[in-house]
Amino acid sequence: MKHTDIKVLFESGKDYVQTDVTVCGWVRTWRDSKSISFIELNDGTSLNNLQLIIEKDKLAESEVKPALVVGCALKAEGTFIPSDRNGFEISVKNIQVLGGCPSDYPLQKKHHTLEFLRTIPHLRPRTKFFEAVFAVRNALSFAIHRYFNKNGYKYVHTPIITGSDCEGAGEMFRVTTHGWKTDCKTESEYYADDFFGVKAGLTVSGQLEGECAAMALGKIYTFGPTFRAEHSNTTRHVAEFWQIEPEVCFCDLDDIIGIAEDFIKSIIKDVMSACPDELAYFDERIEKGLLEKLNFVVASEFGKITYTEAVKVLKKSGKEFKYPVEWGCDLQTEHERYLTEEYFKKPVFVTDYPADIKAFYMKQNSDNKTVAATDLLVPGIGEIIGCSEREADFEKLKSAMVKRNLPLEAYSEYLDTRKYGSVPHSGFGLGFERMLMYITGVQNIRDTLLYPRTVGNL
Ligand code: 4AD
Ligand code: MG
C-alpha cells in the first residue's frame, strides 16, 4: 500500500511541504467544529501523532463521519503543510476507513492506568506509553548488539531447552511431552520414554553453553530468553525474561567489571541519542529527572565495595531492615537499595560474596570463604547484573559441585572445559527488562514486555 511513514514526514518535513502525501494509521483522538474536523493519527513509526485537517465543505459527510472514530484505521491523502502548533499537518483531500472500530474498544480515554492496561496486553501497545516502551526496547536491543559487535564479540545462540540448571537453584520449568496419565515408580523411569529420554527444562541462563563457545571463540555473548519458575511476586521478577550474557576468556574479575561498566554507559548513550522523544516523555510523565540521572550515570564512575565492607556499612546505617544483616546472609532488595540509593547514590558493584550463597561455577577466593563474584546494583531497582570470574580449576570446580549435590554426569561436558585447555575467564548476565526499567523509569517489569509471564498469569 503506497504511503509515507509519519516519522519520515516529521523528520524530513521540508522536503514534503505543499506536496500530496498519503498516510495510514489509527485514530488516537478527534475533535469536531462547525466547519473543520481534526484527527490525531498515529502509525507507530513516531511517538508524535500527525494532525489531519478536514474542511467539511471539501469532503462528503458520508466519507468523513466513519473516520471520526477512536481506534479506527485510516488511509488519508492530502497536502502536507507547515503548522505553528504541530510542526506539520495534512489538509485532507481523500479519506478511507481501512478498519472500523466499534464503541466497545477499551482505549477510548486519553489516559488509562497501567493496572488497567495490564488486563489488555493485546491492545496496550496502541497507547503512547507502550509505544515509547517498545521503541526504547528496540533501541536498547540494537545498542547491545552494536556494543559487542564493535568490540569483536561473537553472538552465539545457546539452547533454550537444556538438561542442566545453570544457577542450581532448581527454578527450571520442565519440558515434557508426557500426558498427565503416567504412573511411574522412579523419576528416571518417568523420563525414559519422554521426548528426550531424560529430564529436560527451559534454560535459566545460557552461561554454561556460552562458556564452551568462549573457549573456542575467545569473546562471545548471548542475548536470548531465559526462564525462571520463581514464585517471587515482585515488580522486578517475571518468569520469562531476556538476558544478555557475555563470556570473555583471559579475563579476571576486575577486567569484567571494567567491561560491564563501559557496556552499561555505552548502551545508555546510544539509547539517549536514538530515542530523544521517548526519553523526554518518560522524564515528564514517569520519572522526573530521568535524563539528568542518565547523564550523570554515563559521566560518573560506578562505586565498588566488597560484600564484607557492605555488611559493615549496612550494620552501621542505623536503618531498621526487615531482614537483619549478618555476614553470610544474602543481600535483600532493601539492603541493595540502601547501598545504591542512600550510601553510594549511584550504581555500585558489590564484590566477593560468601561462596555459600552463590552459584557453583564462581572462582573460589584464597580466603576459602568468598568467591570472585559481583552484582551491579542501581538506584530504584537493585541488582541488574550478576557477574563472576569462573572457577577455572577442574578439581576446585568439581568439589564445589559435589558440595552442592549436583549430578556430575549432567555437567560432564562443562567439566571438560576445565580439563582441556582451561583458562581464566569471566562473564556476566544483564537482565534486559531490568535495564529497560532503569533507562525508562518504568516501575513495574510487567510494563516492559509485550506479554509478561508471571506466576498464575499466562
Ligand atoms: O544473577 P543471575 O541469576 O545470573 C545468572 O544467571 C548468570 N548465569 C549470569 C552470568 O554470569 N552469565 O541473573 C542475571 C540477571 C540478574 O542480575 C537480573 O537482572 C536478571 O538476570 N534476572 C531477572 N530479571 C527478571 N526476572 C527474573 N525472574 C530475573 N532473574 C534474574
Ligand atoms: Mg543474581
How would you sum up this structure, described in words?
The structure is a single chain. The chain is an alpha+beta fold and 458 residues long. It contains 15 helices and 16 strands. An 8-stranded mixed sheet has the order 6-10-11-16-15-14-13-12. The chain has a 5-stranded mixed beta barrel with strand order 1-2-3-5-4. A hairpin with a 3-residue loop joins β14 and β15. α5 packs across α8, α5 packs across α9 and α8 runs antiparallel to α10. The protein is elongated, with a radius of gyration of 27 Å. The mean pLDDT is 95. 4-amino-1,4-dioxobutan-2-aminium adenosine-5'-monophosphate binds next to β11, β15, β16 and α15. 4-amino-1,4-dioxobutan-2-aminium adenosine-5'-monophosphate (4AD) binds next to β11, β15, β16 and α15.
Q: What is the gyration radius calculated from CA atoms?
A: 27 Å
Largest sheet: 8 strands, mixed
Overall pLDDT level: 95
Proportion in helices = 25-40%
Termini separation comes to: 35 Å
What gross morphology would you assign?
A: elongated
Low-confidence stretches: none
Category from helices, strands and their pairing: alpha+beta
- Helix run count: 15
The spatial strand order of the largest sheet comes to: 6-10-11-16-15-14-13-12
β-sheet strand percentage: 15-25%
Compute the number of strand runs.
16
Ligand kinds: 4-amino-1,4-dioxobutan-2-aminium adenosine-5'-monophosphate, magnesium ion
